[in-house]
Amino acid sequence: MKKQEYIDIGLSAWLSPSQIEAVLCGVMNISKEEFFKLSEISSKFIYEVQQVFFKLQSGASEEYTLEKANFYGRDFFVDERVLIPRNDTEILVKVTLDKLHREINIKNMWYLDVGTGSACIPVSIVEEMHPLKFNKAIALELSSEAIDVAAENIEKLAPGKIELRESNLLSAVFHDEELAWKDLCITANLPYIKDGDYVNMDSKVVRNEPNRALYGWAKTGFELYEELIKQCFQMKQVHKLWEMHLFIEIWFDQKKHSKKYLEELWLSFVYFMDSAKIERVIYIKDF
Ligand SMILES: C[S@@+](CC[C@H](N)C(=O)[O-])C[C@H]1O[C@@H](n2cnc3c(N)ncnc32)[C@H](O)[C@@H]1O
After folding, report:
1. Taking the domain 82-285, which CATH number applies?
2. Is the pLDDT of residue 96 over 70?
3. What is the pTM of this model?
4. Which atom of ligand 1 is nearest to the CA of 227?
5. Which of 85, 139, 203, 220 is geometrically suited to a Cys-Cys bond with 71, CB 3.0 to 4.6 A?
6. What residue segments make up the domains of the chain, in order of their start?
């Protein structure tokens, strides 16, 4: 069959050219460059392609349907058990890497990612740090279902480099005696959508993605971060930690509340903006 015939089927299902391209590349397991060079596509793919086109036409997400999401240059396996990694979260990774490369000494450092989901953050950080290495890297996640997905991505993209622990925030490392006298770097993209914002969310997101990955179910949406920050203070005391660096992603309306909260704790912190000039990442230090 001509490639254009496949494309026309996609267009008649009201899919965009980029969706059609992603589907055809995904089903044939080829790169965009290989796809570009094709003029014919074997008709053996037609049934599967039509099925995927149909799912997308009915509102399923492209990433879950193709079980693949690109994040910081790598393809991660995703399904309905985890949040689809967002482009916005690449800012958190970029800021963290920048500080780690330029300002932070990682020689005696443990690295933790809290609420790891697909493990897109720790895999990107650990791989981009190469050849620099943390003393230990651990991905923490509350949901055992998400842990299975994270394990698959770590095995495929950063084998042997990241430990995975089921954990409510920092609970699974809190009493780890090996942590004594270490430095600590933590990244976290936790659920931060507050109750009232549920109604304003994209219906596709609400319908498809796991609720526990998105919602704080509370007044400001910053509550889980407040709990995490409390645990950081406690860990610093218990384990006599030297330095602690925390990088978190926030929602676009959380600057005012987070600033007041962090100032009241006398913490040092800096905000980083996304491309729309909205503060989406906070770097907190000097606990
Ligand atoms: C917004 S998603 C982010 C996932 C991933 N870090 C990313 O950026 O794509 C939040 C993740 O935190 C997990 N989570 C929610 N509450 C948690 C808690 N108390 N402790 C640890 N993980 C939690 C959810 O299961 C979900 O995987």
Report:
1. 3.40.50.150
2. yes
3. 0.92
4. 19
5. 85
6. 3-58, 82-285
